[in-house]
Design a protein that fits this description.
alpha/beta, Rossmann fold, 19 helices, 13 strands
């Protein structure tokens, strides 16, 4: 049960490091209780289209905007529906797919619907609302809105990207590639090419049509079928990219939009990865400094000394993979995945300290458990989502990537300078897309927004996955927006920070009062 924020690109589809688990995963690590949303609608309800909303449908899409959606009881107190959208928006009379949505009904006098995306690409908004509606959102917000989480196209319940069995995923994650050698790079490319072919065969033509622009068009159909004339939306991390894309496509349809943990849509894949590498290196140093103030911290000496001890530990596992208590082999990629997972929430830092303490005495079982959380692998060996494959498939469509050997070697050097601890593990993202069956459909560029409704953009000063400067950049690109900054650690702010952030966002969502631009909490 994890949300994928922004991409730390894996170096191999099966094995590499990703930016794992932000929002829901942080709750799991912090041992938060995940409850339902309280009072829910009962029985089956059919939502009939508002003719005035249908009248605004883009040409050729009337039948999608006017569809009657049946909301049925599901998931022990919620309501669920399937919303039909075109497979290919350039051919709306062709095939269709269905978007799975889950609703937590308003607990008060509903005035609208708040659509939610928790990140990724590849995270399930359906699961997020199901698991966190009653704990993550304030009572005023829950009174005001029906909360609707959805799985974007390609994700989990919505024409999911399908590639491998659970056993094949375990085997792929256990593989080791020396990507800085010609032989190791060739082996990774060959394996990724084979996996890409499996994805194409098992997923079908939808694999080439799960880009973010298509998902943003789905989002407008979702807005219409919940009978809102304006989109009220909360997007975290990758969800900010989806939201800003929507704002550029449908500026007049934007209502109250919060973009938390912002992605800068103007930067390239390589700039994105470098920014994350620097931010994760900073987060490691901040964590080490904090750890060394606590009793029982296994990292001794100065902050530099403590960081070096982590690097030495990674190097030792890279040299000789270790066996966990369950008999599984833990390689350096898996170890690093476990290391970065708790960096998404400082409430999870004690879990990282415990895992490092055990690893320094030879037991990597806890680090493996953290890596499994990031990969959505459950304790019984099954994977609870397709997030790894959706993550890769969507990114290959959204970003052109450097994938020639010389370019990837040069990027490795830059990333190792950006992050001496993790840079090597962030490199070679281009290996995932070089043999992908579909070419990228987007060129990174600044987003343009001409709507009248102000948008709220949130950044966190210690965010390792979406560096705070990206929020400032997105706010500038949007123009009609307010920047809200939390002085804190971890990924995203609303729902896990402080009352200053919470009250500002609640006031905006409930009363329409945007915070003053450049407010710092």
């Amino acid at each position: 049960m994890t949300a994928r924020p922004l991409p730390v690109r894996p170096r191999s589809l099966g094995t590499g490091v990703r930016a794992a688990g932000a929002l829901v995963l942080a709750m799991v690590l912090a041992s938060c209780t995940l409850l339902g949303s309280g009072k829910q609608e009962q029985g089956t309800a059919t939502a009939k289209a508002d003719p005035s909303i249908v009248a605004t449908a883009p040409e050729g899409l009337d039948s999608f905007y006017s569809q009657e959606v049946v909301w049925e009881p599901c998931e022990n107190g919620f309501q669920c529906a399937k919303v039909t959208v075109p497979l290919d928006y350039s051919k709306p009379d062709g095939g269709t797919i269905q978007i799975a949505a889950l609703k937590a009904a308003s607990t008060g006098k509903k005035t609208g619907t708040l659509l939610v995306n928790p990140g990724g690409p590849g995270a399930s908004g359906y699961d997020f609302v199901k698991d966190a509606a009653g704990t993550h959102f304030s009572k005023p917000v829950r009174d005001t809105y029906d909360l609707v989480g959805f799985d974007p196209r390609g994700v989990k319940r919505s024409s999911p990207v399908t590639c491998m069995t659970d056993a094949e995923r375990d085997a792929a994650r256990a593989k080791v590639y020396a990507l800085d050698t010609d032989a190791g790079l060739a082996a990774a490319l060959a394996d990724n090419k084979a996996i890409a072919a499996q994805c194409a065969e098992q997923t079908g033509p939808a694999l080439g049509l799960i880009d973010t622009v298509s998902s943003a068009k789905d989002l407008d159909i979702l807005r219409a079928v919940v009978n809102d004339d304006k989109l009220n939306y909360l997007g975290y991390s990758y969800g900010t990219f989806l939201g800003s894309t929507y704002a550029s496509l449908f500026p007049d349809n934007v209502g109250r939009m919060v973009l938390d943990g912002a992605l800068d849509p103007s930067i390239s894949n390589e700039e994105l990865t470098s920014g994350q590498a620097r931010a994760f290196e900073k987060a490691i140093r901040t964590y080490v400094a904090d750890c060394q103030q606590e009793d029982g911290c296994p990292l001794s000496g100065s902050v530099d000394d403590g960081v070096q001890q982590i690097r030495d530990l990674i190097g030792a596992v890279q040299q000789t993979p270790r066996t966990a208590k369950d008999g599984r082999l833990v390689n350096a990629n898996m170890f690093v995945s476990g290391l970065i997972t708790p960096l998404y929430n400082d409430a999870s830092w004690p879990a990282l300290t415990q895992a490092l303490d055990a690893a320094m005495t030879g037991d990597v079982s806890l680090m493996l458990r953290l890596a499994d959380l990031g990969a959505d692998r459950t304790s019984n060996g099954t994977y609870s989502s397709n997030s790894t494959f959706a993550f890769n498939a969507i990114n290959c469509l959204d970003y052109p990537m450097v994938s020639d050997t010389a370019g990837m070697r040069a990027e490795q050097k830059r990333l190792m300078a950006d992050s001496p601890t993790l840079g090597y593990f962030f490199a070679y993202g281009g290996t995932n897309c070089v043999d992908w069956p579909y070419q990228s459909v987007r060129t990174p560029a600044p987003v343009e927004y001409s709507g009248e409704s102000p948008i709220v953009v949130i950044g966190t000063t210690g965010d390792p996955a979406t560096p705070v400067e990206w929020a400032a950049s997105l706010r500038k690109q949007l123009g009609n927006a307010s920047l809200l900054t939390w002085k804190g650690e971890g990924h995203t702010a609303y729902g896990r920070s402080n009352s200053c952030i919470g009250d500002a966002v609640d006031s905006y969502l409930v009363d329409g009062k945007a915070p003053a631009d450049n407010t710092v909490c």
